[in-house]
Amino acid sequence: MSLESWEEDWDMYTKILVPLDGSKTAETILPNVMRLARESTSKVVLLTVDAPGLDSKKVGPSWSNMGDALATLERPDAQMKAYMDSAASMLAGMGVEATTVTVAGGAAEEILIYATDNGCDLIAMSTRGRSALKRGLMGSVTDAVVRASDVPVLAVGPKSVEGKDLDGSIRSIAVPLDGSDMAETVLPHVEKLANLLSLDVFLLRVVRMVPWAYGAHERVPMDTTNIETALELEAKEYLATVADRFTAKGITCRTEVLHGVPWDKIVNFSTTTNDMMVAISTHGRSGITRFVLGSVADMLIRSLETPVLVVRPL
């Protein structure tokens, strides 16, 4: 996508898919869902996945213990139905139309299939705080969904804090851009969120100077001042062009050029206040490539106390 093809008629969310497993961790996404659904009059689908072969005796009778099991989104039928019905009733009491659905299979796969087959235009879910190595060995439902979903994913991570959500303190949205068409695919979503929730927009560009890429190294010193100045000027001009599009639509928009490691600088900037979420476009990597290279979106989800909207280019 390029700025010239920025869609003008992209519809707001009409059906939000919310995977739940009965745990407190999964429920941390609900305040965000409530605000979005109320403002957009979106319908909400609460989904649980009944994984075949689950032995509830091995997991234990406690919902808390079940929530910590390796396979997520699993519950005995009677308990889970009561839980899901209660969650739907709670949302209804807040003015949100919600239905419940139970499907069987692998959690991540079934979430993705249901979202695609039933016209969901947003998946909203929470994630656990596993280390990169454990995620690589055991897998993670949220990681898998973010990596493969054709539908935008609104995620809250293990450091999420009650009140730092769309129904609480969130008043702005930070948008990391690198000048690529891929990064710009998030812009229509940012525009709609900003209009829907009256959010200010902060456009970010992280400039990372790597001296050896320009012929400099320890034994051959090189003055890269001019290169750094040119990179920063190019970043400012690019962000200004994008900002003009938001300003023309009546959205308050500011820009900021940062220097350093992208995910670290984005996290630092986003945590300077308690009212900023992040929206980012990301590649869908998997396996050893993801493990070695890492993922800015993944690091943001696991580092921030506020929600992250992730859009994967189609």
TrEMBL record:
Domain UspA: residue ranges: 12-156, 171-312
SUPFAM superfamilies: Adenine nucleotide alpha hydrolases-like
InterPro entries cross-referenced by the UniProt entry: Rossmann-like_a/b/a_fold (IPR014729), Universal_stress_UspA (IPR006015), UspA (IPR006016)
Pfam family, one: Usp
Stated family: Belongs to the universal stress protein A family.
Family annotation (PANTHER family): STRESS RESPONSE PROTEIN NHAX, UNIVERSAL STRESS PROTEIN UP12
Protein name (database record): UspA domain-containing protein
Organism for this UniProt entry: marine metagenome
Lineage: unclassified sequences, metagenomes, ecological metagenomes
